Every structure is written in C-alpha cells, then in structure tokens.
Amino acid sequence: MTGSRRRAEGGAGIDRSRSLSFSFDGRRFSGYAGDTLASALLASGVRVVGRSFKYHRPRGVYTAGPEEPNALVALRRGARHEPNTRATMIELYDGLEAVSQNRWPSLRLDLMGINDRLSALIPAGFYYKTFMWPPKAWMAYERWIRRAAGLGTAPEGRDPDRYEHRHAHCDVLVVGGGPAGLMAALAAGRAGLRVILCDERAGLGGSLLRETHAVGGESGAEWTRSTLAELAAMPTVAILPRTTAAGLFDHGTATLVERIADHLPEPPPFLPRQRRWTVRARRTLLATGAIERPLVFAGNDRPGVMLASAMRAYANQYGVLPGSRTVVFANNDAGYRTALDLAAAGVVVAAVVDSRDAAASPIAERVRARGIEVLAGHVVRAAHGRFGVMSVDAAPLGRTEAKRSIVCDSLAVSGGLNPTAHLHCHAGGKLEWDERRLCFVPLRGRADVECIGAARGLFSLAECLWDGARAGTDALGALRGAKAAKAGIPAVEEEPERPPQALWAVPGRGKKRFVDIQDDVTAADVGLAAREGYVSVEHLKRYTTLGMGTDQGKTANVNGLALLAGHRREAIPSVGTTTFRPPYTPVTIGALVGRETGLHFMPIRRTAMHEWHEEHGAVMIETGLWMRPRCYPRPGETPAQAVEREATHVRKTVGLVDVSTLGKIDVQGPDATEFLQRVYANNWASLAVGKARYGIMLREDGIVFDDGTTSRIGECRYFMTTTTANAAAVLLHLEHLLQVVWPELRVQVTSETEQWAAMALAGPRSRTVLARAIEGVDVSDKALPFMGVGFGRIAGAPVRAFRISFSGELAYEINAPADYGRAVWEALLAVGSSDGIAPYGTEAMGVLRIEKGHVAGPEIDGRTTAEDLGLGRLVSARKPDFIGKHLMGRPGLIDPKRLRLVGLVPVDGKTRIRAGSQIALETAPATAAKGLGHVTSTAFSPELGHPIALALLRGGLQRKSETLHALFPLDGSAVAVRVADPVFVDPEGARLRA
Amino acid sequence: MPERRSPLVECRRPGLHGASPAGGPGIEIGEIAPLSAVQVAAFDEEKAAAALGAAIGIAAPRQQNSTAVDGETAVLWTGPARWLVVEREKRDLGELLARHCTPEIAAVTDLSHARTAIRIEGRAVRTLLSKLCTLDLDRAAFPQGCSAQTVMGHIGILLHCRAEACFDLFVYRGFAVSAWETIVDAALEFGCQIR
Amino acid sequence: MLLIECPWCGPREQVEFTYAGDAKPRRPQPAAGQQAFFEYVYLRDNPRGPHRELWHHTGGCRRFLVVTRDTLTHAISATAPVDKAGT
C-alpha cells in the first residue's frame, strides 16, 4: 500500500482518524474519510489518471469539482461497473475500485499515444474529411475510431441496483449550499417557508470549505456547520446533500438526482442507489457558484497543471499538496490568493505570473513579503513534462525573446470566473457579457428563477452572503407578500480585487494549446474551423467537438468562443454562446428510469378471468395495457393448430371467450337518447328498453371513429360498448361533446369497463348451454331474440345476457360484476361441458370475424368512411345532425374510386396472404407504389379450408372476381388473389338469428 | 350469491416484507374488501346532495377535494356535482342510492367491482405516496379528510386521507395487481407489513 | 412539465391532463353548411403568445377547462371551467 506522500497539515474536510483503502488500476492506496477519489489520488502522488480522448496524452486531475475534464475513471466491476465518473466528485469509500480509461495496455504505456505525434495529420474535422469514402467502409473505420478515440466501456449485465423517483413541492428550492445558498435557505427557512436546499457534494458549504476566509469570526467550515444545524432543526426545511440539480423546466419544475449509495460499496438493502426528484418550486434560487477558466498556452494540459481554485481546495479542504514546487499563473487576483494559501500549506511557490501590468496591490505586496517572486505583465508560454510538469517558460506578455525557464512540478492557472448559469439557461434565461468581470452573467428572466451570489457574477464572499440573505427575504415577499426581518449577515474580511485581464490564449506556434482539454480541441483547431467557415458558435462546436464531452465544456466554452470572436474580429457577445441543455452533469439512465423496469416496467391490466387463463395454459398477448388470452394450445398443439381448432369448435359446437376488455360506458340521463342520436351515425330513436343495437360513430370529419353495440337498459339509461383500443378515446369524445359542444344535454357518462367481466358464449349450442346456466331468463328465440337483452343469474351472480354476435354464430355476451366474473366463467364451462364447450382466444375470435367480414382496427384505420367499410346503409339520411354528418359528403369522401372493403382469396386456394400486402394488377414489384390498395386482415379459414383476407381495394366490389396480386415488397413475394365478397360465412345471417 | 373474488387474492402475501426497522414496519397495507363504491353524478347538485343525505345520512361534501366520513362509509368529492360513496360492502348501496336519486336528479352508477381499495398506513405513508404520485402530500397541503384523484405512473388513482398517517387508495380493478406490486416494492425500504 | 390550475381540483401536474386543442372553434349549427363545418374542423389560428386552449383533466375530475397558455413561454395566465370561459 502506498502511503500519503503529499498530505499536509490542515484539511478540515477530512477525518484523519478514519483511513480508507482503495485501488486504482489495481494498485492499493489509502485515503481518509472526506476525501474524494481525486484528492486521495493526489495525496498518494498519482499524477497521471487518464489518457486524453483523441491524442491519448497523459492527463492529471485538473479541477476539484463537477467541471472536471480529465480525471474520468471507471468505478466498480461487473454489472455495477460505471464508466466516465469524475474522480473529483467521487467520495472515497473503503474498498473502492477505480480504473483509468482510454489507454491500452496501460496508463504509462499507451500505444495509442502515437496519435499525439501524428496530430498534425488529424486536425479538427479529420474524421469527417477522411472517412467519407468509400461509404461502405465506415463500419470498419468506426470500429477502429471507437477503439482509438473514446472513453469508458459500458457495463456488462443488468444493473442489479434499485432506482426510484420521488416528488416534492416547496416554496423555495435553493440549488447549491455555498455561502449564497446557505444564507438564502436561512432567510427563507426562518420566515417559515418550505425550503429544499440541495447540493451536489456530500458536504454543504461550497467555497466556505475550500477557501480560508473567516465568516463571522469563525472558520468557513465552522460557520457552515452551525448554519446547517440551524437549518436542520427547521421543520419546513429539507436538506439534500449529494443531490445534483440536473435540469430546470417549466413552471418551477426541477429534476434533482440524489446519489444515495454511490459513496458506499453497495446500496443498503431495499434502498435505491440513486433517486430522481421532481421538485415543484414556487421559486428557485440558483446558488450554483462559478467555475474557473483555464488559461490557454502550450502544454496547458500537462499533469500537474491545475485550476488555481482546485489547488486551493485540495490544500485547504483536503490537506493535499498537488506539488511541492508550484508556479501560479493568472490574469486576476486569484493567483495571489492561491500563492498565499499554498505557501501557508507548505508548498514552495516559485513564482506568481500575472499577465496584468504591475500595479500597487496590497495582496501582491503580501505575496512578495513572503518571499515569492511576482512576475507582473508576464505569461506562462509553455509547460513541459510529458507525465508531469517539470518546468514552465515564463515571458513578458507580447515579448517572446525574454523567455525564462522556471523549474516546478505543478502549475496553478486561473483565467477568471464564469458564473454557473446552466440551470438559468435551462429555464429560458439569457446571458449578458460583462466587460469588466469578463464573463457572461445571467440576465433576470423568468420571475420565479433567480441566480444568486457567484452565479450572478458576485464573486466576493461578502456579496454572496448578502445576496443570499436578500434573495431569501425577497422570496418571502413574493410568495407571502410579507416582509421578513433582515437576516443578520456575518462579517467577513476580504480585500477588494483588481479586475481580470482579457487573456484568451497566450500567443504561440507549434505546440498544442488546449482550449477543450477533454475533447482535445486546441486553439489551432478553433482557428482552422474559423478559416474553413465554421464561424457560428454552434458550427464551431460540432466541427471541432469543442464542449461536446461529458463535461459539456464547462471549463472550455468561453475561451473557445472568445478565440472565435477574435478570428471573426467581433466582440464576444456578438458571437454568443451555445445552448445549455439538461442535464447539468451526466445522469445515470437508471435514475431516469426509476422503478419502471422489469416487473414494474408498465402496469398490466388484468381481466377478472386472468388467472384462469394462465392456469389453463393460455398464450397471453398484450392489447394496450391489457393481457388477453390469445389461444389455449393443448399438449402437442402449436398455437396455429389451437387457433384453428378453437375457431372450428365455435362454428360447430360452442365456445367461450373473454371480452372483458371491450370499453363499456354507462350513459344516463333524461337526454340520453337524443345524445346517442347525435353521437352515432345511425338511428337510435326507436330502440326499446331491453334491446341492443349496433352503432357506428364517426368523427366530425366524416371518417369512422369506432363501433360497438349499445343497449337500452332503462328509460334514461344505455349501456354502450366500444372497441378495446378506443375505450378511453370514446369516453373522452363523449365528455367533450357533453361539456363543450352540447352542455345543455342532461347526460352523464361513466366508464364501466372495469365493473363488468364480459364473456361471449358463441356457437350453435350456445343457447342450450345458456339455458341450463342462467336463472330468470327465457333464452328462447322468441323471448330473447337477436339483439335482445335479458337480466338473470348465473351461479347465483347477477348477470346481463346480450344476444349479439361478433362471430356470426348464435351467440350471447354475458356480463357479470367483475368479482363474480371467474365464478360465472367457470359455471358456464361446467354447465357446457356436456355440450363440449371450450374456451377460445382472441386469435380465433379474429378468424371468426374475418370470415364474417366484420371490420375491426385494421379496417377502422382513421382513413375509412362508413361507405368504404360497407356500412354506408347504416348511416342515417334523415337525422338533421350527428357528428360527422356535415363533412362525410365531401367529394373526396364519396369518390367512387376510393378504397373499399372487399374479401380476397388466393387463386391457388392455399397460399396465405400476408397482412400489409399491396394489391396490384401485375406481379412486378415496381407497380406496388401505384397499388390498388392493401390487405388489412388475414386468416386461414377453417370453415372454408383455405386462406382468406380482407382488403381495402380501389373500386371495391366492382372488381369482384377479378384476379389481382397481393405483393409483399419486404420479401418480394406475390400471391395471385381473387376479389370476393368480404362476408365469407353465412352472408344471409341465418346462424346468428337461429 | 357466490363470494366476491378480489383481484388481489393471488398476489397478497400477508407478513412483513423488506426491511425490519427498529421502530416496527413503517408501512402497513391491506385491502378493504368486499367494497361498495357507487358514483352519484348530479344533474341538479342541490337535490342530489339532499337525496344522497337522505339515503345514507351523510351530508355530501361540496368543497373540492373534500370528503365526509361516517364510520366505514365515506362520501368523496370527485368533481363538480359528482361523488363516490364508498364503504365495506354491507348493503346494496347502489340500489339504495338509485332509489333516492331519481334519473332527473342524478345518474347513479355502481362501480363496486370496478375499484379496488387499498388501505396504506404507517409513519412512512406520506413518503411512500410521494414516490408514487405527484401530489403535494405535505400534512398542511393534504390534511385528514382531503381526497384527490391523480395518476400513479400509468394508473389513475383516488386517494383519501383518512387520518394523518392513513390513506385509502382506490384503483381500477384491472390495475389492482400491478398497483399493489408497485406499492409494496416502494414500501420495502420502510418495512412493509401486509395484512 | 406544466402546472395547470384545475378550477375544480387545484394545481396539478401536466401528466394528469389531456390536451384537446384550440378552445375557440365552436360547432356550427346543423344547417350551417359544409364550409362552416370545414372551418370548424380544420382551420386554426397559430398564435405566438397567449392561446386559449382546451385541456381535459383526465387523471382528475374529468372536466374540460380552458387554459390560456403563452405558446412562446408556456406561461399560463388563466384557467377557467368551460362553461364560465365563454367558449
């Protein structure tokens, strides 16, 4: 085990009494509780943690936060393997296993490192330009490119962990637990508002933990601790650590991702690894802080080069010294603060290189007073050292000749701060360029979303505290109209800082100066893109991949577009920024999916007879969310044989099918009859109580919407059925008509689909069976004729018997209250056993209806009129009004050349016709495009002994007996077919009236 | 009359499931069965409310999301001039209400078999429900006596807060098994006692 | 994800609602003729800004409501029951 070589005194964020062991690339290391993987690796002297995306250059930890471009590692093994995690955000735990990525065979010896030497040959756009020809070779190229350029590998196996969703509501959502966020939560919480305070890190405090300012006489960490204790004691405040606000959406919606168990080897039993929160906040305060910009110069990606803010964080929070001899390079005063913090921690600061001209500055004087050299008006032109910085070249800005080499093992860089305004932009907020602070600052957008503190460009601690308190108080005013007492703002000691200097890239030639370190985009690439005409910032992004990595250019974008502005000779604001889209940082798919996977992927809708079907070997099939029995194969039977047997059985004897999924709507009220008159295209005026009628519903545009039987079960009450697929749509349609179009009609509609178990008893012996099963109903043809309704009992349960038929046979549809459904189903089967009753599934039901030429979903396809479907005679010519009446007569809908329903049979009497086939005069596939129609439903007809089909054919039955061809272009097959009447069985309807 | 068969009969496994926290299970769930659930949808709200009151002796609630409870019988407001009367089956509730609410006054629809009632109680009940639906379930926002129809994923539900830590959840019968499985799974972390 | 204030049930998530189109077209009288129905079914304004539209509270009280939504910002300035919204 390698010890901590670079651990200094201090480090309030770690617990030195709790040592944790972990491995990186198989080597064992140790760290402390409170460490991140990055801080522990740095403490252990690990400088190279990965290889870059394109050039495979060795890279080290670059930041201490979510913006990390370099230190992407893979965590855990097997199904829990997770690639591309940022070592700077991974909490160390005992036994953590991490491996580096994008290197082969090892970090030290990466053979793909050849790309770096060949880089002159692979500039921006290289892949686009090179691999275009020949087109077919792309697959081969791609495999090579994926190997050479890429990040981690996907896990193998199914993720074994749980994920879940949770919903929350609050008055104020505070994103970010730094000084501004804590003060805002405090002010809002003290006023009694419901507050959710989230922070992406395990410990709240933000910069208070990373910087050395005293707050109200305490250290930042101490003040944070007491503030959190006060917040935690407030009943209306919820604090969510380890929770990233991934996106902000309309009407105060925020998506948060809480990492419940990522800091543990495995999630505790029954707890999710991550939880996605959907928060509705009346007000959202974005205290998301700011991200430091790198500086662009040759070799600025070398391991050991690190953001100055990160170096301070490692020294102050974790007691980790990223080097022993450091140069600081900045265009702003952060350089001096960094030098002082590092010196205090025991680092030798070789020099502070400040690009700005010398000016009287107290902090610079203090640095000098510590014996640290200050090179004002200088820049670092290059950093040297392939596996770690060994020296840097400093020179006066604009004068290359006076180069000076400074030996060092690390380099802190600061190019100024960018407010973290991503979430603000998710919410539609705009940004404005601030010439003094040299950054984009958020413009106030939606009233309910506000950036506070550093996120709006207030970079001093005092301003952050003040702004947080103000925003919390303002929230109370906006939400409750009340004024709160001003929260006491703790005093801080800070020096005023000099403004930064614009320094988008240190001039240089030859050596790579990286703009986007993760994507290996250099200043030269930006120049090339501009020369080649990619002068829109969005084009620049796609062409060079600037900002397209997993970090989405958090450190890179502003430098990149400032350089582009330089090439365009325009001001930065006129170039603009690319669009910020959610998520802020990558989100695990599992967190998005939540519980909706496996058993919980989608709910299953079960009929009352569901278990019976499963117990009796039914092959089930999804119909929307419903599960229905497709068929009941007997031992040794294929499903197709079962379907044929079941259909034959219904025609010859008697069968029973579960039709519970049909939509059922209770239509009640004094105006119910008038309502049906207007809803259906056919006539409903004369239906007697106790009678059923087939109804056809049109849409207002004249196209058929749905069909079904509806029965009058009382003077003011109808029982409507719909197709399974349209049950919800029909109810919505009726409600629309009653509430919006005809509110004067006194009718109530309610779904009764779930109230009734429904089963169709069909076949020549169905009457015999029903007669024995049912009490209280005379089932003779005279007493219960076709389209009659009877009320009685089966097995003691109250039932309704409707004499209607979908199969074309003598049939009854039996409805029983659902909790009795299985009892009634079993009673019918028991009573019917002497008549050879057998259950049949939806597939046989489909065969029977196709034989009978009854239309269903494939024919009622949203394009067909009643006339097209052969139902034109049903449409009332006399009713003054019904839905669809006024537009169904439009020329295009009555054109005789429309597709009309026909039957088809194969000319050879045996070849099956495939649903979806195109119908043509010729067999040549080329004619399919100008086909005559298409096949909608097909079946093998047991009754006829040959295949049959329904089709929509131009000219319809005018083509009866013609021979045409059903083409199936997907496999080039063709079947010669003869046009026939769509009613293949019992066209007179004698059987169902038997 | 045969015995009513609940859709949950196949999936309800009594006992403690999931975690066993020191304070006992955080969730207890069970079914209210057999259920009577009858909808009264009024054409004339005043008369219907009066008729409903006359039928069962409970004043129909007129405020949105409100309820009126008398023992095991509850009248839930489910929309303007619309109520759902629920109780453990003890009489022919549909017939009783239809007798009082004539067709001119209201449409009465018996939905006793169309709904499955699941009672969820325990100290974690509000947290559990916040995993399942989008409602604001804060004690102040959803107090005792409050009810709401909402969706639980793809499933429409009706929630009734009977007491601070006791909710009745009504779900369409066909979805009852899936709803039950989802609720139990979400409750495992709290310790889930199934009755 | 809109938050829609149902006049009957209070503020609810968009997932409970079904969008039902422009609230403006009114079904013509039966004798109004084919052209009037054609316009009712097909012709719609496509405003940039406030738009009065029908939503159905499918997962709640099953009432239609008129929502005035800004098509640019999604901001909802008013919701009302259909009968009180003057449609």
Shape of chain B: globular
What's the pLDDT, averaged over the residues of chain B?
A: 97
What is the topology, as strand order, of the major beta sheet of chain B? 1-12-2-8-11-10-9
**Could you estimate the helical fraction of the residues of chain C in percent?**
10-25%
Q: Globular, elongated, flat, extended or rod-shaped: what is the shape of chain C?
A: globular
Work out the number of β strands of chain C.
Answer: 6
Average pLDDT taken over every residue of chain C: 94
Radius of gyration of chain B: 17 Å
Q: With helices defined by DSSP (H or I, 4 residues minimum), what is the helix count of chain B?
A: 4
* Contiguous uncertain segments of 5+ residues of chain C: none
State the main characteristics.
heterotrimer, A: about 1000 residues, alpha+beta, seven-stranded mixed beta sheet, 25 helices, about 25% helix, about 25% strand, elongated, C: about 90 residues, mainly beta, four-stranded antiparallel beta sheet, two-stranded antiparallel ribbon, 1 helix, about 40% strand
Overview of this structure, please?
The complex is a heterotrimer of chains A (994), B (195) and C (87). By secondary structure, chain A is α+β, with helices and mostly antiparallel strands. Chain A has 25 helices and 50 strands. In chain A, strands 8, 9, 12, 13, 14, 15 and 28 form a seven-stranded mixed sheet that branches. In chain A, strands 40-41-42-43-39-33-44 form a seven-stranded mixed sheet. Chain B has 195 residues and is α+β, with helices and mostly antiparallel strands. In chain B, α1 packs across α2. Chain C has 87 residues and is mostly beta strands. Chains in contact: A-B, A-C, B-C. At the A-B interface, β8, β38 and α23 of A face β7 and α4 of B.
Task: Please give a quick description of this structure.
The complex is a heterotrimer of chains A (994), B (195) and C (87). Chain A has 994 residues and is an alpha+beta fold.
Write the layout of secondary structure elements.
The complex is a heterotrimer of chains A (994), B (195) and C (87).
Chain A: E1 15-24, E2 27-33, H1 37-43, E3 50-51, E4 58-59, E5 72-75, E6 82-86, E7 96-99, H2 114-117, H3 126-130, H4 138-148, E8 163-175, H5 179-190, E9 195-198, H6 207-210, E10 214-215, E11 218-219, H7 220-232, E12 237-240, E13 243-248, E14 253-259, E15 274-286, E16 290-292, E17 305-307, H8 308-318, E18 325-330, H9 334-345, E19 348-354, H10 362-369, E20 373-376, E21 378-384, E22 391-396, E23 404-407, E24 410-414, E25 417-419, H11 422-426, E26 431-434, E27 439-442, E28 449-451, H12 461-480, E29 514-516, E30 521-522, H13 523-531, H14 537-544, H15 557-568, H16 572-575, H17 589-593, H18 610-615, E31 619-623, E32 626-631, H19 639-652, E33 655-658, E34 663-668, H20 672-679, E35 691-698, E36 704-714, E37 717-722, H21 727-741, E38 748-751, E39 756-762, H22 766-773, E40 774-775, E41 789-794, E42 797-802, E43 811-817, H23 818-832, E44 838-839, H24 842-851, H25 891-894, E45 899-906, E46 918-920, E47 933-941, E48 946-954, E49 963-968, E50 973-980
Parallel strand pairs in A: 1-7, 8-9, 8-15, 9-12, 15-28, 17-24, 18-19, 18-24, 19-20, 33-44
Antiparallel strand pairs in A: 1-2, 3-4, 5-6, 5-7, 10-11, 13-14, 14-15, 16-25, 21-22, 22-23, 26-27, 29-30, 31-32, 33-39, 34-37, 34-38, 35-36, 36-37, 39-43, 40-41, 41-42, 42-43, 45-48, 45-50, 46-47, 46-49, 47-48, 49-50
Helix pairs in contact in A: 5-7, 5-12, 8-9, 9-10, 13-15, 19-24, 22-23
Chain B: E1 15-17, E2 27-32, E3 35-42, H1 45-56, E4 67-70, E5 73-79, E6 82-88, H2 93-100, E7 106-110, E8 115-121, H3 125-132, E9 147-152, E10 155-163, E11 166-172, H4 176-187, E12 192-194
Parallel strand pairs in B: 2-12
Antiparallel strand pairs in B: 1-12, 2-8, 3-6, 3-7, 4-5, 5-6, 8-11, 9-10, 10-11
Helix pairs in contact in B: 1-2, 3-4
Chain C: E1 3-6, E2 10-13, E3 18-22, H1 34-42, E4 50-56, E5 64-70, E6 76-81
Antiparallel strand pairs in C: 1-2, 3-4, 4-5, 5-6
